[in-house]
Fold this sequence. Notes:
Layout: E1 2-4, H1 6-15, E2 18-21, H2 35-44, E3 49-53, E4 55-59, E5 62-65, H3 71-82, E6 98-103, E7 106-113, H4 129-132, E8 134-137, E9 140-143, H5 146-157, H6 176-189, H7 200-206, E10 210-212, E11 219-221, H8 223-229, H9 232-238, E12 244-248, E13 260-263, H10 272-284, E14 293-294, E15 297-298, H11 303-317, E16 327-332, E17 335-341, H12 348-353, H13 362-370, H14 380-390, E18 397-401, E19 406-412, H15 419-429, H16 431-434, H17 438-450, H18 455-461, H19 466-478, E20 482-485, E21 492-495, H20 522-525, H21 545-555, H22 562-572, H23 580-587, H24 591-604, E22 608-610, E23 623-625
Parallel strand pairs: 1-6, 2-3, 12-16
Antiparallel strand pairs: 3-7, 4-5, 6-7, 8-9, 10-11, 12-13, 14-15, 16-17, 17-19, 18-19, 20-21, 22-23
Amino acid sequence: MKTLDPIDVQQLAEGQDLEVKKAAGRDGRGKLPRSVFETYSAMANTTGGVILLGIEEKSHRTFRVHGIKDVDGVLTELWNGLNDRDQVSINLLKPESVEVLEVAGEAVIRIGVPRARRTQRPVHVGRNPLTGTFRRGHTGDYRCDEEAVRRMLAERVEESRDARILKGFGTEDLDASTIETYRTLFRATKRDHPWLVASDAEFLRLIGAVGRDRETGEEGITQAGLLMFGKLRSILDAFPYYVVDYRELPFPEDEGRWLDRLTTDGSWPGNLLEFHLRTMKRLVQDLKIPFRLEGASRRDEARVHEALREALTNTLIHADYSGSIPILVIKRSDLFGFRNPGVMRIPVEEASRGGLSDCRNRNLQKMFQLIGLGEQAGSGLPTIFRAWREESWRAPDLRERYDVESTVLTMPMVSLLPPEIVEALRERFGDEFDGLRSVERLAVVTAAAEGHVNHARLREISDEHPRDLTMVLSGLVKKGFLESRGATRATTYSLAGGEAFVQEENLFHLLGNQSPTSGESSEHLGRSSEHLGRSSEHLDVLGDERLLAVAEPVRSKGKAPKHLVEDVIEKLCTSRFLNIQEIAALLDRAPETIRIHYINPMVHAGRLQLRYPGQKNHPQQAYGKAGEH
């Protein structure tokens, strides 16, 4: 029997998805909870995790060990249920996946649940996947809706999602100029290739844009062919939620506005090849790193350009075009961001190591590779991470979002220890900050630079042992540098006494989690960019003429000096408390911009006070002028 101490349990809570269950039963000797199989399904369908039976979570990250007296009885219930198809759809566990541990002198059962492979999902409770499939969320296990389950079922049986022939579509749905552009790039890349002499019709068949069903003899445009070469209206007929969107944003102010934008508005063909070529030019423009492109062949190009090309290509070839989340590419002076609909087909950790690939759209992948856009399967992410290491930039951050079925890659062009953030932290914490060990400073700076830090993120940017990182994070909370938040399965740490200086992931809320309905134009989707991200709910403060008059000096300006914005906020909060949404609506600014760049610094400087002191994350938190309430 292996023995764990309390820090080992905390390590499990920090390092991976953890669920603890008392599992005492009526007599207190031990009973397998019914919810175990729901948690098993949820973990298998997400990223895997650990279930501990015999431990109770009393409060946030505080555990009480009860132990299991009847260990054999609980284990028998577990294995019987796992091998009963009326109970769960598949048994993913091996004998070594389940072990009995000793914690504080009591027997505890540890169940290690692996992430199910694509061909095994959905893992469901009972016989019906549409009603018995679960996933993990920040607040616990949740039952998947039918749409999410059907996507998992499609992923399970379709090795490549883009090979299907589209009935009713023909070459008239393809853009002739795009095909000619592709053939020009192909000639530059494959100078002696035998396909160069093929007719357009034969060439499209050879690269997989046109396919033939060998059973029925039916021939037609494939999904890959339409996405790569199609006319926008034809693409929307086949993929109603199709949107590709590139935005260049200013930094740090006015994140609700863009400097440059390319989206599916009907002014250009709107297909993936044109989007890739036009977006790539914009991504590398203004980069102060040498770059030279001859045709489609790369010559003496920097690793950063190569990494950006890989990130863009991966976004397009791994996207689930049946999903309702738009493809979004963001450029800012301090970072690049890429979002595609659909979660990863293999675990993030395996993809980051390289060598393995399970591309969702293999025909698209091959088409891009034929013109020099995209590396060999499984090498894309290592290429990206290597380029960023060579520049000594903060490591890219790759995340899956199961709530909105998407994958997000953020590539910050900032150092691990940005001088301006380090100086700001010295001003806030004084000599105590300089007294921290290097890994502790790295954790605090990351929380300041990225909005929060967790165990997994710290592992990506540090060489410390995972157990040591657990001690680092808990120690920084005790020292007053960080504060923890979230349930056991989602513990994160933010900067104590103030919010982050930069919050990158909020960029991907610009389009919201909504998508256009069938037939809605992309122009309609992109309208009124100044108001993206703001609350659409009615706010009573907008009917208060006195408050509007106070806000007018800022509200009427596209960009206002920081001191003016702060003075107006202070006046607005005189004699009454206002929340973030109310202040943002009065100033006609995005809530996140107001919160990060004005409210938090003003609270820290003592100019504003909290309605609920000591409860910074209170759902009804509001702000008033210091000393006035």
